[in-house]
């Protein structure tokens, strides 16, 4: 039988009781608990990370899966306050970018393979295709999530910054990125402010995202309507403006303006040396 703590973790993740059986082994249960406890932390102290933590995060990142072991990602660690302020101005002026002690900008990086190919006389023409750019973005994402899990285990908080793609040319110039390197997203890292408690945000029920054998959405609407109510309860508990998840999420993809400048992302990607065939 799940313990009350495990039941609380599962209920927090879904905002209601859910038929998820926790792992039986102690080690697996501890990891499962760690994963369920993930939350976004925007209120971060400016206090610098302990020595060695950055390298620990990168070691965890490099332990993630990498397609064909090509390792088509890199990351820029930004600590300089003026540089963080400029990057914040390109990414919607989010205060936590300026305030966090460490900003990691995760990169899709095909330039390394091209430099190595040039050095040994090997063609790298496949780097011009969409598959390779997509692979690099996936590699960067897997690496970053490993770093997040490591950060949380170290007592740190994190928040992803998708708005690093709002003005990619400015970010590219600020970080001195060569052709075939593109900023996929940022990640603020720091110690959470103890006086501000961040709750676990409920996710959609498994009945919406889990499909057995074939894709099925016949009963999706009822589950989403229930989730709308769960999210309203969460927003109320966090003193947030109440809005149905279904409305909030569809508004986010309503038109090009809702992309906050990212509607011209294909243009910026090609300008950075990715033909995307």
Brief summary of the model shown:
By secondary structure, the chain is of the alpha+beta class.
**Distance from first to last alpha carbon:** 53 Å
Strand order of the largest sheet: 1-2-4-3
Poorly predicted regions are: none
Percentage of residues in DSSP E strands: 5-15%
Structural class: alpha+beta
Per the principal axes of the C-alpha atoms, what is the gross shape? globular
Which oligomerization state do the chains in this entry correspond to?
single chain
- Rg value: 21 Å
Question: Which percent bin holds the helix content?
Answer: 40-55%
Describe this structure as you would to a colleague.
By secondary structure, this protein is an alpha+beta fold. The chain is built from twelve helices and four strands, in the order H-H-H-E-H-H-E-H-H-E-H-E-H-H-H-H. The protein has helices at residues 4-14, 26-36, 53-61, 81-90, 95-99, 111-120, 130-153, 168-175, 206-209, 220-237, 245-251, 265-271, and strands at 73-78, 102-109, 157-161, 181-190. Helix 3 (53-61) packs across helix 7 and helix 4 runs antiparallel to helix 8. The longest helix is centred in the middle third of the chain and has 24 residues, at 130-153. The chain is globular.
């Amino acid at each position: 039988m799940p313990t009350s703590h495990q039941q609380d973790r599962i209920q927090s993740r879904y905002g209601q009781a859910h038929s998820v059986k926790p792992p039986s082994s102690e080690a697996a249960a501890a990891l499962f608990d760690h994963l369920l406890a993930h939350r976004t932390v925007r209120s971060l102290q400016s206090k610098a990370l302990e020595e060695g933590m950055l390298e620990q995060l990168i070691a965890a990142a490099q332990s993630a899966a990498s397609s064909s072991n090509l390792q088509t990602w890199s990351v820029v660690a930004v600590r300089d306050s003026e540089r963080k302020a400029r990057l914040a101005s390109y990414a919607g002026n989010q205060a936590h970018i300026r305030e966090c002690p460490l900003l990691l900008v995760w990169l899709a990086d095909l330039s390394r393979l091209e430099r190595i190919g040039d050095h040994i006389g090997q063609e790298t023409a496949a780097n011009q295709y969409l598959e390779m750019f997509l692979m690099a973005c996936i590699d960067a994402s897997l690496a970053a999530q490993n770093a997040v899990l490591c950060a949380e285990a170290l007592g740190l908080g994190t928040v992803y910054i998708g708005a690093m793609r709002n003005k990619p040319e400015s970010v590219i110039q600020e970080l001195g990125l060569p052709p075939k390197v593109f900023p996929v997203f940022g990640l603020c890292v720091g110690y959470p402010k103890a006086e501000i408690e961040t709750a676990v945000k409920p996710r959609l029920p498994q009945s919406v995202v889990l499909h057995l054998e074939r894709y099925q959405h016949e009963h999706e609407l009822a589950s989403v309507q229930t989730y709308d109510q769960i999210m309203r309860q969460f927003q109320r508990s966090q003193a947030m403006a109440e809005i149905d998840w279904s409305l909030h999420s569809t508004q986010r993809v309503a038109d090009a303006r809702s992309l906050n400048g990212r509607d011209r992302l294909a243009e910026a990607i090609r300008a950075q040396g990715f033909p995307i065939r």
